[in-house]
Amino acid sequence: MTDEQIHKGLAGVLVDTTKISKVNPETNSLLYRGYPVQELAAHCSFEEVAYLLWNGELPTTDELAEFTDGERSQRALSPELKAVIDALPLTCHPMDVCRTAASVLGAQHEQADDSSLQANMEKSVSLFAAMPAVVAYDQRRRRGEDVVEPRDDLDYSANFLWMTFGEEAAPEVVEAFNVSMILYAEHSFNASTFTGRVITSTLSDLHSAVTGAIGALKGPLHGGANEAVMHTFEEIISSAGEGDVAEHAAGWLDAALADKKKIMGFGHRVYKNGDSRVPTMKASMDKMVKHYDRADLGELYTALESAMGERKNILPNLDYPAGPVYHLMGFDTPTFTPLFVAARITGWTAHIMEQLEANSLIRPLSAYDGTEERHLG
Ligand SMILES: CC(=O)SCCNC(=O)CCNC(=O)[C@H](O)C(C)(C)COP(=O)(O)OP(=O)(O)OC[C@H]1O[C@@H](n2cnc3c(N)ncnc32)[C@H](O)[C@@H]1OP(=O)(O)O
Ligand SMILES: O=C([O-])CC(=O)C(=O)O
């Protein structure tokens, strides 16, 4: 086998078809079931987008009412799941908590091994409903705060913020959070979704596939980058000392690039001319910068983005504006990637169901370049 036949990282390889989303780097667009994501972010709730991803169409008023009733009735965590989370050390990453919770929810599910479309749809909705409570519960326990139970008079985003902070968020904050959930919901065959599809292709169960997908999302080359962006900002701020932070960003970047560091929140495997979701998320970030009166953070964002553009011509991905937005809202930095989990559960599970509709075991080939055949003795 020659090197030309090897597609390291599966870069550029078409492995299957999907009807769920279309990522088009040429037109810099992203469609969910045919709708531009920017339109969905401007006009829809995250619940409507979840319904769309799973069912292929936006819900009617009655369908949405039935769907949200189902979601709201499954928001609370069982005492058993709370006990499992409480048993995890505070030294573990919140992504480990999400991964464990997904696994526990599978083990507790009465139809865990029923992979019919109906059972998988129900499991998807229940994971979607419960994950915000997992994320909120974990952040609060790490802060030594009491649990805040879900409210069924609030929509998904407002309730998520309520459970995390114990107070109702301002409407513009709820709106920015809703936008972030929609933008994070789905992105074709990214590494975590592909992981979920690989697991599903063995005819394993939905919770196992989601648990594996969470593991794949944790890495800083994928979802972990939103958290890493905030660490970068903190490093720039602390190393600026008394100096101007935005001015210091370029110097910090030069040193990081000279050290061959990857700058988190920049670059993308598919988009080479900019991530289709960034302008929408950046517009929400600008609103949050204004809302929280943190022009300094906006200036640092712009300074690092310009310096990266000048030096490497590499543009930001969605994680770059999402990190600062979650920081401004008051989330602890290690909670950022769990927020991505909560959103992406919709895309992952849509792909799991699609994979099962026309399954083929995913099992690529490798070229052996180890020791030639040899024998004992
Ligand atoms: C929601 C998401 O998951 S979006 C992705 C989030 N991940 C990140 O933000 C992590 C930082 N970015 C990266 O590591 C990369 O851009 C990836 C992994 C996202 C995409 O990588 P690939 O498509 O494999 O591109 P690859 O890593 O080969 O980069 C191509 C070149 O650009 C450089 N490059 C790409 N991204 C970056 C970056 N963020 N910082 C510095 N250099 C970079 C590489 O060093 C490489 O340079 P070289 O040709 O001189 O060796
Ligand atoms: O598509 C990718 O490779 C990564 C990404 O942006 C996502 O999963 O949202």
TrEMBL record:
It holds the Pfam family Citrate_synt. One of its GO terms (cellular component) is cytosol. It comes from the Bacteria. GO terms for molecular function: citrate synthase activity. One of its GO terms (biological process) is carbohydrate metabolic process. The active site is at H268, D319. Pathway: Carbohydrate metabolism; tricarboxylic acid cycle. Gene3D superfamilies: Citrate Synthase, domain 1, Cytochrome P450-Terp, domain 2. It catalyses: oxaloacetate + acetyl-CoA + H2O = citrate + CoA + H(+). InterPro entries: 2-MeCitrate/Citrate_synth_II, Citrate_synth-like_lrg_a-sub, Citrate_synth-like_sm_a-sub, Citrate_synthase, Citrate_synthase_AS, Citrate_synthase_bac-typ, Citrate_synthase_sf. The keyword Transferase applies. PROSITE patterns: CITRATE_SYNTHASE. The keyword Transport does not apply. Keywords: Acyltransferase, Transferase, Tricarboxylic acid cycle. NCBIfam families: cit_synth_II, PRK14033.1. PANTHER family: CITRATE SYNTHASE (PTHR11739), CITRATE SYNTHASE, PEROXISOMAL (PTHR11739:SF4). Belongs to the citrate synthase family. This is Citrate synthase.
